[in-house]
Amino acid sequence: MSARDWIEKDFYRELGVSSDASAEEIKKAYRKLARELHPDANPGDTKAEARFKAVSEAYGVLSDAAKRKQYDEARRLFAGGGGFPGGFGGGGGFDVGDLFGRAGAQPGGMGGGLGDLLGGLFNRRGGGAASATRPRRGEDVETDVRIDFTEAVRGATVPMRLSSPAACGTCGGSGARPGTTPRTCANCGGAGLVTRSQGAFAFSEPCQDCRGTGRVVDDPCPECGGDGVSTRTRTLTIRIPAGVDDGQRIRLAGQGEPGRNGGPTGDLYVRVHVNPHPVFGRAGNDLTVTVPVTFPELALGTTLTVPTLEGKVTVKVPAGTASGRVMRAKGKGIARRDGQVGDLLITLQVAVPNNMDAKAREALENYALATAGHDPRPDLNALLEEKGRS
Ligand SMILES: [Zn+2]
Ligand SMILES: [Zn+2]
């Protein structure tokens, strides 16, 4: 794609957000659209697929703070002809390509800044003339997977369907109908750039005939329409290592987008989301569980059987144990692939009955009478007494 195409596109409108939308808003809008337009949800709907591509492209730029800044700056500079200083346009009509050429060739001042900016655009997108034939590494791709708590602890293999732009399988990425080959662009001789003279200066700009690629496709591939890019749906099996934590990213080398011109393939990053467990929590490699106990169990001591993820564990609670005490069952936590094993942390918490029958109530009242001489909060009462005196 040429820089001109890029700037003429309204990525904000594509995502349905305002141009001052926050990164979070952009992400949210993209997620929603990507779900609606996903090829899996719209089989055979070429309109949806085109929108999916456009939305993905827009998100690719707007989700990257540096790219977004460049895009915003470029759009601000090229927004309509009106705002641009006069004397720059070549004989009437506003021509973006014109501006590109001149701006890039003027070192220092405003032109130099533009040249840097557009150079950045070209290199990032890879569609520009400068990198038309240079090998370029494929983009990294990020995706999300959601697994259960137990799967995260034990490790899991998760099948995933992944849709991403990829070199078209029908034409091998050339954009030409199978059996034909793209020809070298006659206008630029394959360089992707044309040079024009303007007064004392010579300016290079992306070739309009070949859109800066240096090659022209006469008979476009029916699958990708000449782009050389189509949406590829892949099924991958992802091995999630035991002990993975919520929010962690797993890197799958070489599973991202294919490189251009023989460049290496990018990587795939899978962000793991872990569903919470109804009973167990997690603190690093330790599992946590809260066990409700009765007051007599803590006061008199007891032996508790507590479930673990793999089975159960027996815990001896000594007489006179405080509520809130944390007991540790060694080695009953999360066993990671690297050999680290966590513990199970058991928090004992008194459960107060909210409904007692007459007999239980009487027993408890007797207990209260029998222990009336015992002050459970001497420190606090001492403080209150001090305050009463002053
Ligand atoms: Zn194709
Ligand atoms: Zn050309």
UniProtKB/TrEMBL annotation:
CXXCXGXG motif repeat ranges, renumbered to this chain: 168-175, 185-192, 207-214, 221-228
Compartments (UniProt record): Cytoplasm
A Pfam family it matches: DnaJ_CXXCXGXG
GO molecular function terms attached to this record: ATP binding; heat shock protein binding; unfolded protein binding; zinc ion binding
Keyword entries, A-Z: Chaperone, Cytoplasm, DNA replication, Metal-binding, Repeat, Stress response, Zinc, Zinc-finger
GO biological process entries: DNA replication; protein refolding; response to heat
Gene Ontology annotations for the cellular component aspect, listed alphabetically: cytoplasm
Necessary cofactors: Zn(2+)
Record: residues binding Zn(2+) 1: C168, C171, C221, C224
Principal location: cytoplasm
Superkingdom as given in the UniProt entry: Bacteria
Annotated J domain residues: 10-75
Renumbered zinc finger spans (CR-type): 155-233
Signal sequence, renumbered to the chain: none
Gene3D superfamilies, sorted: DnaJ domain, Heat shock protein DnaJ, cysteine-rich domain, Urease metallochaperone UreE, N-terminal domain
Entry note: cofactor: Binds 2 Zn(2+) ions per monomer.
Ligand binding (Zn(2+) 2): C185, C188, C207, C210
InterPro entries: DnaJ, DnaJ_C, DnaJ_domain, HSP40/DnaJ_pept-bd, HSP_DnaJ_Cys-rich_dom, HSP_DnaJ_Cys-rich_dom_sf, J_dom_sf
Domain characteristics, as noted in the entry: The J domain is necessary and sufficient to stimulate DnaK ATPase activity. Zinc center 1 plays an important role in the autonomous, DnaK-independent chaperone activity of DnaJ. Zinc center 2 is essential for interaction with DnaK and for DnaJ activity.
Function comment: Participates actively in the response to hyperosmotic and heat shock by preventing the aggregation of stress-denatured proteins and by disaggregating proteins, also in an autonomous, DnaK-independent fashion. Unfolded proteins bind initially to DnaJ; upon interaction with the DnaJ-bound protein, DnaK hydrolyzes its bound ATP, resulting in the formation of a stable complex. GrpE releases ADP from DnaK; ATP binding to DnaK triggers the release of the substrate protein, thus completing the reaction cycle.
UniProt similarity note: Belongs to the DnaJ family.
Quaternary structure and partners: Homodimer.
Protein name per UniProt: Chaperone protein DnaJ
Organism: Saccharothrix coeruleofusca
Phylogenetic lineage: Bacteria, Bacillati, Actinomycetota, Actinomycetes, Pseudonocardiales
